[in-house]
């Protein structure tokens, strides 16, 4: 098991404190997402931003996520789960410098895989990597800097592999 | 990474460790790629808030991605041992620096003061794609303050900060 996988599985286990069946097979419902969001202490706000989202480390007891007002419902769900992934993985406790000029830092694939494991069901994974790639395109926000396609291609097989490990109960 | 390379990394990281310790407000370095050596030094030279980890990609050093992570003061460190650690994962090498108390100890002041502290350096806020502009940071701060119904005196602090930011942008 890779370090990223281990961290994703730990984050999933933490999420199951709030949503027992998180990433257990079915796609997360809106109500479950809301329970998870409240459980981790994430407040969501909206503003007219030039970027999809900004996550702030906690102050006054809450994390703050500010989402761009122009996002689709699916993008909102994906980004919220992605940031919850950061929080549960312990990667949202500090102010951070992020510059995606090189390989994505480990925290990003962890958050991506955490989000996708909640948004992509067992049936999607059974249909194969190409199918999962298409599903990711549907749920992930379209990126404005051109790395989304690369990110999707890399993530799809990881999602399928993670699904196998979840189904085998490798971490729990 | 062989011994010589490890020593090169150690030599490179040593002054950084010292500067982290000496710099008020900089306790740790975190979570960035594409940050070159000069950027790190620039960060440390300025009045920059806490940064937990800096990962960098330095073409001069065989394109290895490097990570500098947080750590404490070095107390308890065996004498002669470096206060940073180099580890490898596949093609990636990481340098972990031990230093600092982190954001936890800095979470002080009123809500507006904490908010301003965070958003005044928008490049240090986690975001999904790209670096938020200062305008984004201002919008995000006000969205939070309005939604959470900050008291008037807190809003006044934010307004004063926004005026300051906008005046600096127009200079």
Record keyword descriptors for this entry.
heterodimer; A: 172 residues; mainly alpha; three-stranded mixed sheet; 7 helices; globular; B: 171 residues; alpha+beta; two-stranded antiparallel sheet; 5 strands; 42% helix
What features would you describe in this structure?
The complex is a heterodimer of chains A (172) and B (171). Chain A has 172 residues and is mainly α. Chain A is built from seven helices and three strands. Chain A has helices spanning 3-15, 30-40, 73-88, 107-119, 122-126, 129-139, 148-168; strands spanning 42-47, 53-59, 62-68. In chain A, a hairpin with a 2-residue loop joins β2 (53-59) and β3. In chain B, the strands form two sheets. Chain B has a two-stranded antiparallel ribbon with strand order 1-2. Mean pLDDT of chain B is 53; it is low at 20-106. Chains A and B meet through β1, β2 and α3 of A and β1, α3, β5 and α4 of B.
Question: What is this structure, in a nutshell?
Answer:
The complex is a heterodimer of chains A (172) and B (171). Chain A is mostly helical.
Write the layout of secondary structure elements.
The complex is a heterodimer of chains A (172) and B (171).
Chain A: H1 3-15, H2 30-40, E1 42-47, E2 53-59, E3 62-68, H3 73-88, H4 107-119, H5 122-126, H6 129-139, H7 148-168
Parallel strand pairs in A: 1-3
Antiparallel strand pairs in A: 2-3
Helix pairs in contact in A: 1-4, 2-3, 3-4, 4-7, 6-7
Chain B: H1 3-22, H2 37-45, E1 54-57, E2 65-68, E3 84-89, E4 92-97, H3 111-119, E5 126-127, H4 134-147, H5 152-170
Antiparallel strand pairs in B: 1-2, 3-4
């Amino acid at each position: 098991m890779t370090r990223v996988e281990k961290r994703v599985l730990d984050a999933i286990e933490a999420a199951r404190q709030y949503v027992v069946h998180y990433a257990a097979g079915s796609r997360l419902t809106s109500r479950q997402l809301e329970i998870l969001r409240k459980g981790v202490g994430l407040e969501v706000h909206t503003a007219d931003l030039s970027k999809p989202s900004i996550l702030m480390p906690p102050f006054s007891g809450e994390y703050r996520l500010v989402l761009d007002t122009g996002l689709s419902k699916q993008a909102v769900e994906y980004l919220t789960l992605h940031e919850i992934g950061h929080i549960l993985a312990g990667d949202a406790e500090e102010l951070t410098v992020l510059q995606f000029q090189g390989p994505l830092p480990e925290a990003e694939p962890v958050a991506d895989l955490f989000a996708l494991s909640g948004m992509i069901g067992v049936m999607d994974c059974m249909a194969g990597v190409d199918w999962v790639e298409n599903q990711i395109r549907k749920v992930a926000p379209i990126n404005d800097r051109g790395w989304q396609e690369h990110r999707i291609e890399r993530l799809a097989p990881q999602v399928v592999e993670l699904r196998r490990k979840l189904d085998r109960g490798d971490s729990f | 990474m062989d011994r010589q390379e490890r020593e090169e990394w150690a030599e490179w990281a040593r002054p950084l460790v010292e500067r982290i310790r000496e710099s008020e407000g900089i306790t740790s370095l975190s979570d960035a790629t594409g940050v070159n050596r000069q950027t790190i030094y620039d960060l440390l030279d300025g009045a920059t808030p806490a940064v937990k980890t800096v990962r960098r990609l330095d073409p001069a050093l065989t394109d290895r991605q490097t990570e500098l992570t947080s750590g404490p003061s070095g107390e308890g460190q065996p004498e002669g041992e470096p206060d940073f650690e180099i580890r490898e994962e596949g093609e990636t090498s990481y340098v972990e620096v031990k230093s600092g108390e982190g954001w936890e100890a800095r979470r002080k002041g009123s809500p507006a003061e904490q908010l301003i502290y965070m958003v005044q350096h928008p490049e240090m806020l986690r975001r999904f794609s790209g670096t938020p502009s200062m305008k984004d940071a201002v919008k995000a701060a006000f969205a939070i303050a309005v939604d959470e119904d900050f008291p008037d005196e807190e809003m006044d602090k934010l307004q004063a900060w926004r005026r300051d930011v906008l005046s600096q942008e127009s200079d």
